Amino acid sequence: MKVDFSKNNGLIPVIIQNNETQQVLMLGYMNEEAFQKTQKENIVTFFSRSKNRLWTKGETSRNFLKVVSIKEDCDQDALLIQVIPNGPTCHNGTTSCFATEPQIPFLNELENVIENRISNPSSESYVASLFQKGINKMAQKVGEEAVELVIEAKDDNQDLFIGEAADLLFHYLILLQAKNLKLNDIEQELMRRMKK
Hints:
By secondary structure, the chain is of the alpha+beta class. The protein has helices spanning about 30-40, 105-120, 125-130, 135-155, 160-180, 185-195, and strands at about 10-20, 25-30, 45-50, 55, 65-70, 80-85.
């Protein structure tokens, strides 16, 4: 890939896009050194014009942007980088710097959080600890939550019912991850059945 850094004092604009949702997350600038560091580490690094130094997105917040692909435009003086974000991209805590509300459905976002907790386990993470106990324990937990939901369904306390429904759905998402499946896989099956 040949990128032209000869314009704009050696800086090129870089559009960051979520690889899964295609949502534009932010715009930054790179000099040649930031571009090379990004290619080498597969984590987006910009040149901060305000700090006048290289700046790896997430160096403070830990919300890194993992590179999936890098494409140059037709003039080779701008980049589109598709990423997997590790949390909100904007410093305001939103998914994108261009919208205050996330454009990815919440359950998909939760699915991504669960996947991240499994891939990057910590001792404080309930998800990681349950995942480490194995498939039998995860399946058992889904069964327990399903029974608790059925029990609450027979009563008239809607708040308790909602709480148990949330517990069941959360543990179901963990079990899907353990089986290397996504909600989209289940959605596709339901869509296939609806056509019959």
